[in-house]
TrEMBL record:
<feature type="region of interest" description="Disordered">
    <location>
        <begin position="106"/>
        <end position="135"/>
    </location>
</feature>
<comment type="similarity">
    <text>Belongs to the mitochondrion-specific ribosomal protein mL41 family.</text>
</comment>
<keyword id="KW-0809">Transit peptide</keyword>
<keyword id="KW-0496">Mitochondrion</keyword>
<dbReference type="GO" id="GO:0005762">
    <property type="term" value="C:mitochondrial large ribosomal subunit"/>
</dbReference>
<protein>
    <submittedName>
        <fullName>4701_t:CDS:1</fullName>
    </submittedName>
</protein>
<keyword id="KW-0687">Ribonucleoprotein</keyword>
<dbReference type="Pfam" id="PF09809">
    <property type="entry name" value="MRP-L27"/>
</dbReference>
<dbReference type="GO" id="GO:0003735">
    <property type="term" value="F:structural constituent of ribosome"/>
</dbReference>
<dbReference type="InterPro" id="IPR019189">
    <property type="entry name" value="Ribosomal_mL41"/>
</dbReference>
<feature type="compositionally biased region" description="Low complexity">
    <location>
        <begin position="114"/>
        <end position="125"/>
    </location>
</feature>
<keyword id="KW-0689">Ribosomal protein</keyword>
<dbReference type="GO" id="GO:0006412">
    <property type="term" value="P:translation"/>
</dbReference>
Length: 135
């Protein structure tokens, strides 16, 4: 009967995927250790020898550049109301397409959006001013 023993050994030697969905007698953990200890009164004392510290290398001579430059301007300098935003969106996305004009009339009427040349020049100046306010 040596095959019965081998069968039992093989069953115990199986390796399964490590998940946290195992039974009540299995604890996977998260791989993080305790940073301190519990006190008898319910508090917690942090042991600084156990706290993980990360050393940042010196990046002054690094050839890689950050995604955002440190000289980037922060904050929003203007706000748009809904009508202004939709008008800018129309000019950018649909300069000559048929669109639904719901902002000015309040109803869904099919309208062709082709501004005259003077209005187009003024609109380009407005967008340039808006862009200058952004940056």
């Amino acid at each position: 009967m040596p095959f019965g023993i081998e069968k039992v050994l093989y069953r115990g030697a199986k390796r399964y995927q490590m998940t946290s969905k195992k039974g009540h007698n299995y604890y996977k953990g998260t791989g993080s250790g305790a940073m301190g200890r519990h006190t008898s009164r319910g508090g917690y004392i942090i042991d600084l020898r156990k706290v993980r510290t990360y050393v940042v290398p010196d990046l002054s001579n690094c050839e890689y550049k950050p995604y955002v430059t440190p000289e980037a301007k922060r904050g929003i300098k203007f706000s748009l109301n809904t009508n202004e935003y939709l008008n800018i969106l129309r000019r950018e996305l649909y300069p000559t397409e048929t669109i639904y004009d719901t902002v000015k009339t309040g109803e869904r009427s099919r309208k062709r959006f082709n501004p005259p040349n003077e209005e187009a020049n003024q609109q380009e100046e407005v967008t340039a001013e808006e862009q200058s306010r952004l940056f």
